[in-house]
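Example record

One chain of 257 residues, shown exactly as stored in the release files.
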Amino acid sequence: MPEGDTVYRAATRLSRALAGRELTRFELRVPKYAALDLAGLTVDEVVPRGKHILTRIGEHTLHTHLGMDGSWQLVLVGGRWPRPDYLARAVLGTAAGTAVGFELPVVEMLAREDEEDAVGHLGPDLLGASWDSKLAVANLRRDPGAELAGALLEQRNLAGLGNVYVTELLFLRGLHPHTPVSGAGNLDRLVDLAHKLIVANRDRVERTTTGDLRPGKRTYVYGRYGKPCLRCGTRIQRGLQGRERVAAWCPSCQPSP
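Predicted structure tokens for this chain:
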């Protein structure tokens, strides 16, 4: 699942390509919207909200989510699509080029005034202009017995963190993934660090939580299972967080609660 910074960059690219331009082509390859055509209307803006993308077109909003395999690709006029046509689920064309959404698991049209129906459940957006750290902390504290990794991944608490950031954040704070929220210590500092990490990476193509962009050095524990901890040399362990998420930690730097 893409992290919030990946979605932020995708929405920024889309907005630069589409905002202020008239649509010459509009296709949603979803049965419910197959007959809908907004060609002739102008795209106002494209904005991210957590891991969701909202494309605002007049009174309408196109709501999409990348899921595990989705992506938005920009194609210049006359250019070849980078992925097979049958994978495209949304096509927005202008005189300058085309934005194509491939393998998008969520494609829905909303009245702009109804956007909150799709994203109103989300907690404060770490990369949003209205980021509210105090609300994020209050949301986390509502379930003190929840495992910390799962609570940070819950988009209703705060929106934008994925497995990479949560894994690295817990290492940096010396917290085991299975630590309960009540045992996490200073949640304000934890949430502030999450905000600093994702903001520092929002405009980078190569994400780093270590400050080192060399391959194999960009993360402390994520993706380094079985390798020595960059801080103490202990081998990184892995396990499951919940039923599906892979958790990683250093047994020495992040002792079991």
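Notes: The longest strand covers residues 43-49.
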